[in-house]
Amino acid sequence: MPKDIAAWIHISENNAVTVFTGKVEMGQNIRTSLAQQVAEELHVPVASIAMIMGDTDRTPWDAGTFGSRTTPTMGPQLRAAAASARDLLVATAAQQWKVSPTALSAADGRITDSKSRQSITYGQLMHGQQLVKLIESAPPLTPVVDWKIAGTPVPKVDGRAFVTGRHKYSADLSHPDMLFGKVLRPSGFKATLTSLDTKAAESIPGVIVVHDGDFVAVAAADSATAERALRAIKAKWSVPPQPSNADLFSYLKDHVTASRRDEPHIVGSVDRALSDADVKLSQTYTVQYIAHAPLEPRAALAEWQGDKLTVYTGTQRPFAVRDELADAFHISSDKVRVLVPDTGSAYGGKHTGDAAVEAARIAKAAGKPVKLVWTREEEFTWAYFRPAGVIDIRSGAHKDGTIVAWEFHNYNSGPAGIGTPYNVANQKIEFHPVDSPLRQGSYRSLAAAANHFARESHMDELAHAVAMDSLDFRLKNLDDDRLRAVFQAAADKFGWRNRKPSATRGFGIAGGFEKGGYVATCAEVEIVGGQNVHIRRVVEAFDCGPVINPNGLRNQIMGGIVQGIGGALFEAIRFSNGRILNPYFSEYRVPRFADAPEIEIILMDRRDKPPMGAGETPLIGLAPAVGNAIFSATGIRLRSLPMVPNGLPSKRA
Fold it and tell me: How high does pLDDT run on average in the chain?
């Protein structure tokens, strides 16, 4: 990261503060939380700060907005830059007034001399010049306990623009000379083009047809004409035989990619410990592919000016997309500029520049700016999915509830959150990469959702096997004070000790640690008509260190809980022989208003700890808590996500 303050902060003559960051806003409200942290250290109002985000020509290089890394990495970086800028401003005023810096104070964008009472605004002091100084190695940061702006529920910056529709997303952008692009999609995955007839499309006035290998696209002055031209193209594709849902999990176990396998985590001897265990369990848990289903499908507006390419697109990784474009067109990255308008959600699904590259290819061939917006069917079909997975667990425990053996194998879904936070003397934990039959990639919480579902479901199975309360069993095997604290906080708020399950009402608990955050989730479910599962209440306690913006954090947690409902109960991609079978919202079930339970959130606000991100971890406890609640009511143990796509099965565990 650049060490000079000017790379991150600029103060204009009118005292406006501009902050530069390669992070992007996708609805997680980091424009507000980052501005709060700058305002805290620079001693200016949040309203005076404008954030320039995700512009590869103007902001410092950044790996991307993912992994819940904005708060723990970009927050401290901007705080350090702002504190160093404040020190520079005080020193500059002291030099100008020929007084000691200790006699000066900074507040509300102004330097004041406590003795003479003379004061000057930052803008008047700097005259719009750059803040020429390196960021201090240990700048005087405001102690968390003294925060006045950070830690408060500052309203969402530019919130009115979003709720009134004034804000423009990538799909809303326009250019006076632009064309609308459409891409001809293959009839299946891994297809090759065998024949092509574009004569009918080319005969439509104003239509440009682009053909480069298997890439075929059209451009026209309006989207309706582009769509008509696309339908006029006659193409034949060769699609090789491919797996389907029916054989997915056996396929994953049979297609491990040994060359990419990580070394297993081994402590003690699982086999020896199992031989002495009073209770032994062995179970398999499975997770289907699911789609990100963002509100805003992929979109891009690309323009060439000579050999310089500018692309507006919704992505989590503007600099990576810049490099992807540079590679695609064999130009240097300094010839490419990527700008990210605030993006209409991503959830880990917009790491790549698919639409950006396609729009740029069409624009280069057409000689005009081109806007390309994926349809919902394209988004469901050609974007990557959350990985499916198979998880095998063997475990053993003594009658007193002490876990003595834990063996955990994850096939394909990923290693995130794979380790157990519980005390087990004998462990073997291993991730097995697989040659996935579908395109797959990051999804909110990565594999932590799958691994926590398997682990926390299995913990309930062990608790049941040794006849212990689910909460007591976890606490008995847990030393981590912060994880114990969220379990206790959620259970107390939920009234765990007083809940008595019945045939129509069940209660479950789950929790864990991921991305530096600690979470515990309690769920209450109702069984309606003997088959339908309704989540009635969720209580979640979350610890991510000190809270930057409590309202923003609650929104993030609530969003994670609601999104988690889909993957827990009904979301799944259906596919067969290289084709997606449910590429529409009418066929791909996402949570609806009627699915939303009563949600209560407990913020632990640990001001004695460093801040961590909150975009992902709140999701991971929902599925196992709901599964455990279903078991408490019905005795049916559901070990596959989604658990009830077609209602409850009749078979008990």
Answer: 97
Q: Is the pLDDT of residue 509 over 80?
A: yes
Percentage with pLDDT > 70 across the chain = 99
| Residue 173 CA from chain centroid, whole number | 24
Strand, coil or helix: what is 357?
helix
pLDDT digit string, tens, across residues 250-270: 999 999 997 666 789 999 999
Rounded Cα–Cα distance for residues 185 and 115 (Å): 73
The greatest distance separating any two alpha carbons of the chain, rounded to the nearest whole angstrom, comes to 84
Would you state the torsion angle of the CA atoms of residues 56, 60, 61, 65, taken in this order, to the nearest 10 degrees?
A: -90
- Helix 622-634 to helix 448-465 angle, to the nearest 10 degrees? 30
Q: What is the pLDDT of residues 405-418, one digit of tens each?
A: 999 999 999 999 99
Alpha-carbon distance of 28 to 614, in angstroms, equals 9
Confidence at 650, pLDDT banded by 50, 70, 90: confident
| Domain that residue 340 falls in | 171-239+298-373
What is residue 542's three-state secondary structure? Answer: strand
Which two structure tokens, joined as six digits, stand for 43? 């001693």
Please report how many Cα atoms fall inside a 13 Å half-sphere around the Cα of residue 243, on the Cβ side. 15
Name the β-bridge partners of 411. 390, 432
* E strand segments, 270-388: 279-287, 299-305, 308-313, 336-339, 370-373
What would the two tokens of residue 200 be?
Answer: 């009918």
With a cut of 60, say whether residue 653 has pLDDT above it: no
Supply the DSSP symbol for 73. Answer: I
* Structure confidence at residue 652 (pLDDT): 60
Domain end (from 373, 400, 433): 373
| 541 lies in the same domain as 571 | yes
Q: What is the mean pLDDT of residues 221-233?
A: 98
- Distances in whole angstroms, Cα of residue 642 to Cα of each of 287, 450, 627: 7, 11, 10
Running DSSP on this structure, what letter comes out for residue 2? -
Residue from 137, 210, 126, 170 nearest 344 by CA: 170
Q: How far apart are CA 97 and CA 553, in angstroms?
A: 43
Sorted by sequence, the CB contacts under 8 Å of residue 60 that are 6+ apart come out as: 1, 2, 7, 8, 20, 21, 22
pLDDT at position 619: 98
Q: Residue 101's domain is classified under what CATH number?
A: 3.30.365.10
Helix (H) or strand (E) holding 223: helix 223-232
**Separation between Cα atoms, residue 444 and residue 386, nearest integer Å:** 9
- Do the strands 532-543 and 517-528 form a parallel or antiparallel pair, or are they unpaired? antiparallel
Residue range 279-307: average pLDDT? 98
Rounded to 5°, angle at Cα 535 from 29 and 619: 35
- Contact at 8 Å (CB) between 110 and 120? yes
Q: Are residues 177 and 157 in the same domain?
A: no
Closest CA to 41 of 81, 13, 1, 100: 81
| Number of structural domains found in the chain | 3
* Parallel, antiparallel or unpaired: strands 370-373 and 389-397: unpaired
Q: Where are the alpha helices (DSSP H) in 570-648?
A: 622-634
Instruction: Calculate the CA 211 to chain-centre distance.
Output: 35
Closest CA to 619 of 555, 565, 569: 565
Read off the tokens for 23: 């992070």
Backbone conformation region of residue 422, classed left if phi is above 0, alpha if psi is from -120 to 50, else beta: beta
Query: Among 322, 339, 373, where does a domain finish?
Result: 373
Residue 211 lies in a domain: yes
Report DSSP letters for 168-215, one per residue.
Answer: --GGG---TT-EEEEEPPPSSTT-EEEEEE-HHHHTSTT-EEEEETTE
Which residues does residue 640 pair with via DSSP β-bridges, in sequence order?
A: 286
